Amino acid sequence: MKHIMKRAKCLVCLAVLAAVMFTSVQLFPAEAASGSITVTGMLSGGAVLYTGDDLQAAFAAAERGSVVSIDRFITLTSDVVLTTEVMLTNTDRITFGDFRILLSGDGALFVNSRLRRKYYDALSPYSTVEMMEEHDGYVYYLKAQEPTFGSAQLTISRSGEMLGGAVDEANARVFLDASPAGISVNSMLPLVSMPAQNAESVTANVQGAAAGLVSTGSVLTLSATNSDSSGVASRSYTVVVVGDVNSNGRIDAADANQIACHAAGSVVLSGAAFDAADANRDGSVNAKDAVFICEKYLNYEGYTSPLK
After folding, report:
1. What pLDDT digit, counting tens, does each position of 173-190 carry?
2. Which of 251, 96, 100 lies closest to 180 in space, CA to CA?
């Protein structure tokens, strides 16, 4: 359902055909057919494509631009689905009861009298039915709803390799506290989630990983899509793995040395590396962070994450 009918020229064609139909009601005489419903194909040179009493069967037989005439009163016994563009005449002869016309695919309906809202809907949960007035009639067509994250928050679950996590939405940063050996991209992705509106699926990926490990400076991106819309909602975060100062995805003596050098003034850390060096999450980088990292990789079993 990726090519939903929204093109203005289609609406204009329907409008012109409707004008012909509504002003020349004898163009396709009802006497030529037997049944409550007649479907006349405009692309087929005026051929009668269906005659009978089943509106669903009439819609199934219709081609784009067909005229579906309700010649006598009918009662719907179920919802009916329309997947193409048609003109429907004499809708006042339809008894809907609790049933509706559902638009799907390229479904579009041109009528000369406005339908009550409860008598139509979109079959897909990712589209809505829009109405516009056109040449003394009304066009009902599908409009895809764009996926969006809105004000949703990213959440991070814990695992054996993921000791804790935090999200700084304002600065688009994700802080992860992984085991000293690091956490692989494949292990980390199922731990992150974000709800989205009008989304059929939300996927996550990491770019800039170090040899398959999530590393400081890599980028986590979440994307929301649906099958009705070509639009994609996305949200990206810079990843900070606590203690992974050198961005190799692991936490070891090399990282502790970098932190100590920064504390001594021989090295200046900045950006994501600085955030990773603030291992105890107190807002500064000093010798305490170097000691904290050493304790982590030397006594992992006794380590407590500052992100818990």
Report:
1. 999 999 999 999 999 999
2. 251
Q: What's the token pair of residue 277?
A: 């060096």
- 14-37 core/surface letters (b: 16 or more CB in 10 A; e: else): bbebbeebeeeeeebeeeebebbb
Neighbours of 57 (CB within 10 A): 16
Sign, CA torsion 277/282/286/292: negative
* pLDDT tens-digit readout, 108-155: 999 999 999 999 999 999 999 999 998 789 999 999 999 999 999 999
Residue 29 to residue 256: CA distance in whole angstroms: 89
For 154, residues 6+ apart whose C-beta sits below 8 A from its C-beta are 167, 169, 174, 192, 193, 194, 222, 235, 237
Domains of the chain: 8-144 (no CATH), 155-302 (1.10.1330.10)
Amino acid at 179: S
* Nearest to 22, CA basis, from 134, 142, 140: 134
- Return d(Cα 202, Cα 254) in angstroms, integer: 37
Paired sense of beta strands 233-241 and 219-225, if any: antiparallel
